[in-house]
Amino acid sequence: MTRTQATVEEVAGLVLAAGGGRRLGGRPKALLTHRGRPLVEHAVGVLRAAGCARVHVVLGARADEVRRRARLEGCVLVDNPDWEQGMGSSLRAGLDSLAGTGARAALVSLVDQPGIGAAAVGRVLAAFRDETSLVSAAYDGVRGHPVLFGAAHWAGIAARATGDRGARAYLKAHEDAIELVECADVAQAYDIDTEADLRHLA
Predict the structure, then answer these.
(1) What's the whole-model pTM score?
(2) What is the DSSP secondary structure assignment for residue 130, as one 8-state letter?
(3) Which long-range contacts (CB under 8 A, 24 or more apart) does 184-188 make?
(4) What is the pLDDT along the chain (202 residues), one digit of tens a residue?
């Protein structure tokens, strides 16, 4: 097995797509239209194009509608009943869904960052080494998404993932261990958070 093939098998993609879009009038970000399809479908396609063979998607707000409208064949769909508590609960649910799958790392992306494509994701994926890997995309030196968490970090991340902070507290505590991969030349790390941000969607 080549290095690339091994990486594809060992690293699972994880899309956090449970949010309710409170600042978007209660429109879940997963269901926003981008290039004619739901945004969650685009996010999954980016991970797959970058080389993730296994993709788990965490759903929350209007999960049944997301299942109906988005083509997510081959993905493991993870329901987060606590999605209103924030991103931390979705990250915990996603990492928990990977337990026992044989995945040695999770490559975590956010559904509301369509400016980050396969080129940036592929760079982060290529930096995977083993279960202790901790890798983050960076934009002009500032840490962003996607982030790769080796399995050795999952329990620690889950223990600190509360509210909307996600893995922020864990990453701050382990800053020296993070490998930053510069991606500003191939991606734009904006979020779709407000009505004004909708201009980024095609």
Answers:
(1) 0.94
(2) S
(3) 184/138, 184/139, 184/140, 186/117, 186/119, 186/120, 186/123, 187/115, 187/116, 187/117, 187/119, 187/120, 187/137, 187/139, 188/115, 188/116
(4) 444 555 567 999 999 999 988 878 778 999 999 999 999 999 999 999 999 999 999 999 999 999 999 999 999 999 999 999 999 999 999 999 999 999 999 999 999 999 999 999 999 999 999 999 999 999 999 999 999 999 999 999 999 998 777 899 999 999 999 999 999 999 999 999 889 999 999 8
Residue count of the chain = 202
Residue with token string 């975590």: 108
